[in-house]
Structures are given as C-alpha cells and as structure tokens.
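Hello forum,

I keep getting stuck at the same step: I have a sequence, I want structure tokens, and every attempt I make locally crashes halfway through. Rather than fight my setup again tonight, could one of you with a working pipeline run this one for me? It's a single chain of 119 residues.
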Amino acid sequence: MKTEITITCIGCPMGCLVTVTMNENTIVKIEGNICKKGEEYAKDEVTNPTRMVTAVLTVEGCREPLSVKTKQFIPKEKIFDCLSEIYKTKATLPISIGDVIVKDVCSTGVDVVATKHLR
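Reply #2:
Ran it on my machine without issues. Output:
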C-alpha cells in the first residue's frame, strides 16, 4: 500500500515542501527538495525522526535560569521523557558552557550540557 507523506524541510532556509512516497516501510520516491539536505532530512524524518532538545532550569542560589541542550539529537519519541529528567535535575554554581548537567539522558547515550556560564 503506497503512502505519501509531505513535510516541510528544516535542513536549510529554503523550507521546501518535500513529499515522500512509501510502500509499506520502504521509501519509493522523494521529491520537492531543492537541495541534497532536503532529501536527507525527509528520509531521516520518516524513518528515524530525531530532535535536539533545549530547556531552562533553575539553579540553586541563582536568580538566573540555566539554559541547557542535548549534545546531539535524540529520538523524537523520547523528548518528553528527556524534558522530565532535565527538570528533575538540581544544578549548582559555578557552571561553565559545556558542563554536563545530565549524563546519558533517558539512556540515549546523549548528555545534556550547559549553554552558558553562571557564577
């Protein structure tokens, strides 16, 4: 059974509407992309969607929140579990950019790191 999935590519600023035609779980055709990134993005999005996660959390003894992000992409289905784990974390001063705030978040093999200095 053929299925068509249309997505907006975020691989570059063009924002192409890319249509992926699938037969069962196999990609048959990808069209609508202007650049190679569009083809790669569409393929990944329909077979193994991933996302970078960003968040802010409170730091003990500091009025300014700490911004954090996953060091690499994580599976899309783990976003909310990842955020839940991040929000349970208690960070303490001092913090430098790149410090690991949560190691191996949700058993993904990906660390959550600080994106700014706090002293």
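The mean pLDDT is 95. If your local run keeps crashing, start a new thread with the error log.
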